[in-house]
Amino acid sequence: MGLLGAHVSAQGGVQNAPKRGAELECDAIAIFTKNQRQWRARPLKEEEIEGFKENMKRYGIKIALSHDSYLINLGSPKEETYKKSVEAFVDEIIRADQLDLPYLVFHPGSHLGEGEEWGLKKIAEGIEESLSKVPESRVMLLLETTAGQGTNLGYRFEHLAEIMDMVGEKNRMGVCFDTCHVFAAGYDIRSEEAYHETFDEFDSVIGLDKLKAFHLNDSKFPLGSKKDRHEHIGEGEIGIEPFRLLVNDPRFREHPMILETPGGDVWYSANLKLLRDLIE
Ligand code: MN
Ligand code: MN
Ligand code: ZN
After folding, report:
1. Domain 3-277 has CATH 3.20.20.150
2. Bridge-based pairing state of the strands 230-231 and 218-219
């Protein structure tokens, strides 16, 4: 089953997002709490915060997650970018907390040529430094699995396990499993057997208890292509079967499952309907 939903627009203010989710019949939504292509944003206003919380109840959205800005790179070897990233990441944590969001999903980061081990350490350092600035925060930080494009880290389950190992406060960390990214990274999920192998591997490397949310996307490019291009559910290289397995997997009954498919709301509706029809 899972709590099905989509990444919805927060245009006009975060308080507008729950209604958009309800119009799409979402149980769960994901949002950017500020413009995802800018470093800085004014703080959330009290009326936006209260409006958001009220509207979550009014429109019956069970859970909302935030996603961090695309500019943030906690693995950057450039000191200035790293500093700006930590500052912006702390701001993401504060905003998520203000909105009572249980999870903030973020991309681990890119090493930009410094090497994977170096990058993983830098990312862990960035997370620790950020968390140390907001010791009272309650939001759990979810490392997103990545496709491994360019020098992006997080395309192996080992990367995420290593980062979490290095971060002192393990109870503040979890994982968001993006089906497109995992598949593009080279983990097959297309047959029932492959699906179980991949989740068994996740369990042995990271632990399924750390898996808190999903991004449901099909993939435009084949297994192991390392290309991050989302496709409508069932229309890409992954196909429909793994999504049937996911929405019926009793282990993930309470997990938010968020669509990030292309094309906006009309397509979200079609993809959500398709997913619901798969529920047995
Ligand atoms: Mn993402
Ligand atoms: Mn994603
Ligand atoms: Zn993606």
Report:
1. yes
2. antiparallel
